[in-house]
Every structure is written in C-alpha cells, then in structure tokens.
C-alpha cells in the first residue's frame, strides 16, 4: 500500500508539473501574439494615423473574417473531435482525413469568389478598385490560414501544447520585421499586406511540425464520409455566423460613425476594438486550449457545470486585474501602444473594458455551447447580440451621443448578453441537479 500511494503521489506531481509547463507555454505563446498585435497596431497608427486606421478598418475586418472562416472555420470542431477520438486511432485518422478534404474544398470556393468579385470587393473594403489585387492575395492566403488552423486544432485536441506554443511563437517572430518593412515602404497597401502576414506567418512552423508528425503518413486521401462531414457543417455554420457577426457589425457601425461624426472618430473606435481583440485573444486561446477539450470529452452535466463555474471565476479575476492596470495607466499605455494622436481614446476606454469584462465572462458559457455543438442556440445568440449592438449604436448616433454613444451601446449589449447567459446557465445547472 505505501508503495502504491507514493507512486500515485509521484504521478500526480508529474501531471501537475506538466500542466504548469503547458500553461506557461500557452501563456508565453499568447503574450507573444498580443505583443505583436499591439506593435502591428502601432505601426499602422504611426505610419497611417487616425484617418488611415479608419480607412484600413474594413480590410482588417475582412482579414479577421477569413482567419476565422478559412477551411470552413472548423478549428473548434477539430479540437472537439480529436479530443474525443484520441483513444480511438482509426476514428481519429478518418476524421482528420475528412477534415483535410473539407477544408481544401471550402478554401477553393472562397478563392474562386475572391477572383470573380475582386473589383467590387476592392471598392467596398479599400475604397478603390486599384486594390483588387489585394483581394486575390487575401483569397490565396486563406489556404495558409486553414492549414495552420487544422494543425493547431489537432495539437490542442491532443493536448500537444508544445507544438501549439511553438507555432505561435515562431510565427509571431516572423511577422514583425516583414510587417514593418511592408508598412513603411508601401503605406496603406503595405499595411494591408501586414495584416495578412500576421495570420499567414503561422503556416511555415505549422508545415514543419506537420511534416515531422507521426500522424502525417497515416492520413490518407479517400472518399469522405457524409455523417462526419455533416458534423463539420454545424461548426462551419457557427463559424460563418460568428465570423460574419463581428466584421459586418463593425462595418455597419464604422460607416455610421464616419457619416455621423467623421473618419477620426471611426479611427479611434477602430483602434479600441483592435486593442480589445488583442487582449481578448489571450482568453479565447486559453479557453480553447484548456477548457473546451475538457467539456468536449465530459458527458456528466454536473461536472460540466462545476467546470464552468471554476473557469468563469478564473477568467473574471484575471481580466479584472489586467483591465484595472490598463485603465489606471491609460494615459501612458494608449500613446505607447498606439501614438499620441490616439490620446482621445483615454476618455472612452473604460466603456470598452467594462463591456469586455462582461463579454469574457460569458465566453466560458459560449464555449460549452460550441463544445456540445449546439448550433441553433449559438446562431441565435450571435445574430441576436450583433443586431442588438447595431441597433443600439445607430440609435445612440441618431440621438447625437456621438462616439461615446457607441461605447455605451457596447456596455449595454454586453450587460444584456451576460445576464441572459448566466440565467440560462442557472437553469441548466438546476435541471442537472434534479437529474
């Protein structure tokens, strides 16, 4: 008995140290991504200014859209099913083969759309048809986005944290010098290419780790199986709604701001949401890497509910500390991260932080919805909050509240989203307890 308990204790210590190492690597990877994201934002701010930031906003939204939707937007689905199938090698290999085929077909459709509609898309995103070549480049780049998403999703599902972290860190290291040169040499077009480079840079390290993977020789091209494809389609639908809801809402609100207040106000708001996406990305990756595989593999609803409570308290605490530091030192951080030209953002940043605090809290519940592939609920929530924010923002602008009204709309929408999600989770927990 003593030898067995000491062996168990040793195994627990090894597992705990492995978890700490994984957490440290993931944190380092995401910090590098946040750092590069901030520096890219500063490059655009310095070389293009507030109006240039506003002009590039639609293209930024489009790149974000493609980064989420590339290959069908199935990264969360890959994490979910790889985590479920990792103990069943045959099922795992069949799923990965289907996922690869699915992503390739989806990417081919997207690049065809980019080629056919390059002129109108260039007018809409960049304001000039002379940039239509950028639309074609963006369409081709999403093949790289999709490939790195597949590799990262597989690594996360298998809990291969070192692989995921290495891809992120190497990719982020490649991005900055290329982005600086492009933005400095080619202005607006160079900054647009820099945005593509930010997501495309992960392709090279992902290709390296894929080539070295023991799974690679065993994954064969073959006829796909429709039942598995249908499961992936639900994640594509969720990705389309999620990817569309954010950029489309941003485009509508940005245009309304430009028409009502001016391009400078749109630039300040664009800078705010880019700062937000940078630090929010840390929590999204953390939840995708640790939380989602747990709830995907867990079938006991009471355990899922307990896990949600723990992770919600954790992310709320971490965000509160970081947001407090950013707010108290906003006069220092905003000019540092952007430029002195964006100092007007210090008057509004508190609204963004309050809304994001509530939003990251509800993300924990949202990841349960994705992990359990509750497509209808996810679609309704995403569309609902997008329409609500658009409506509140346009109403505030019509009332003459200007840029502050848009920030207040962000807070109000997230208050409603938070209360609705917590109420739904409470009902879920009560039903679980009765079962």
Automatic annotation (TrEMBL):
Where does the source fall among the domains of life?
Bacteria
Chief location of this protein within or outside the cell: membrane
Pfam families in alphabetical order: Polysacc_synt
Keywords assigned: Cell membrane, Membrane, Transmembrane, Transmembrane helix
Note the topology in the membrane: Multi-pass membrane protein
Which GO terms of type biological process are on file? enterobacterial common antigen biosynthetic process
The listed locations are: Cell membrane
The answer, when asked if Membrane is one of the entry's keywords, is yes
Q: Which GO terms describe its cellular component?
A: plasma membrane
Record-annotated membrane-spanning stretches = 20-47, 59-79, 99-119, 131-151, 163-182, 188-211, 232-253, 273-291, 311-329, 349-370, 377-401, 407-428
Query: Under which name does UniProt file this protein?
Result: O-antigen translocase
Species of provenance = Pseudomonas parafulva
Q: According to the entry, what is the taxonomic lineage of the organism?
A: Bacteria, Pseudomonadati, Pseudomonadota, Gammaproteobacteria, Pseudomonadales
């Amino acid at each position: 008995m003593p030898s067995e308990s000491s062996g168990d204790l040793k195994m627990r210590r090894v597992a705990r140290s492995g978890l700490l190492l994984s957490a440290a690597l993931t944190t380092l990877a995401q910090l590098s991504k946040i750092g590069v994201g901030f520096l890219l934002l500063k490059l655009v701010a310095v070389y293009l200014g507030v109006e240039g930031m506003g002009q590039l906003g639609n293209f930024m939204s489009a790149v974000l859209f493609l980064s989420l939707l590339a290959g069908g937007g199935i990264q969360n689905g890959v994490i979910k099913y790889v985590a479920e199938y990792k103990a069943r090698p045959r099922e795992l290999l069949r799923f990965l083969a289907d996922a690869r085929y699915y992503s390739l077909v989806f990417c081919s459709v997207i690049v065809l759309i980019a080629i056919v509609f390059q002129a109108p898309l260039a007018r809409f995103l960049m304001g000039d048809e002379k940039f239509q070549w950028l639309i074609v480049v963006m369409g081709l780049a999403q093949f790289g986005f999709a490939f790195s998403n597949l590799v990262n999703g597989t690594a996360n599902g298998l809990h291969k944290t070192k692989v995921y972290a290495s891809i992120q860190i190497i990719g982020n290291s490649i991005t900055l010098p290329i982005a600086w040169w492009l933005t400095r040499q080619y202005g607006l077009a160079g900054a647009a290419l820099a945005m593509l480079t930010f997501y495309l840079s992960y392709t090279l390290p992902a290709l390296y780790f894929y080539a070295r993977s023991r799974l690679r020789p065993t994954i064969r091209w073959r006829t796909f199986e429709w039942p598995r494809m249908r499961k992936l389609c639900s994640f594509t639908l969720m990705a389309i709604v999620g990817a569309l809801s954010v950029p489309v809402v941003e485009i509508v609100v940005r245009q309304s701001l430009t028409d009502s207040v001016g391009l400078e106000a749109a630039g300040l708001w664009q800078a705010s949401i880019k700062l937000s996406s940078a630090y929010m990305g840390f929590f999204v990756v953390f939840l995708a890497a640790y939380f989602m595989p747990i709830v995907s593999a867990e079938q006991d609803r009471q355990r899922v509910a307990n896990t949600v409570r723990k992770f919600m308290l954790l992310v709320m605490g971490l965000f509160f500390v970081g947001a407090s530091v950013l707010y108290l030192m906003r006069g220092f951080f905003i000019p540092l991260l952007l430029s002195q030209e964006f100092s007007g953002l210090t008057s509004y940043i508190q609204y963004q932080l309050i809304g994001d605090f509530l939003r990251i809290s509800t993300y924990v519940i949202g990841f349960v919805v994705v992990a359990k592939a509750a497509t209808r609920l996810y679609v309704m929530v995403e569309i609902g909050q997008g329409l609500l924010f658009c409506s509140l923002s346009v109403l505030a602008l019509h009332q003459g509240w200007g840029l502050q009204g848009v920030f207040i709309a962000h807070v109000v929408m997230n208050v409603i989203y938070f209360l609705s999600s917590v109420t739904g989770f409470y009902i879920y927990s009560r039903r679980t307890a009765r079962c």
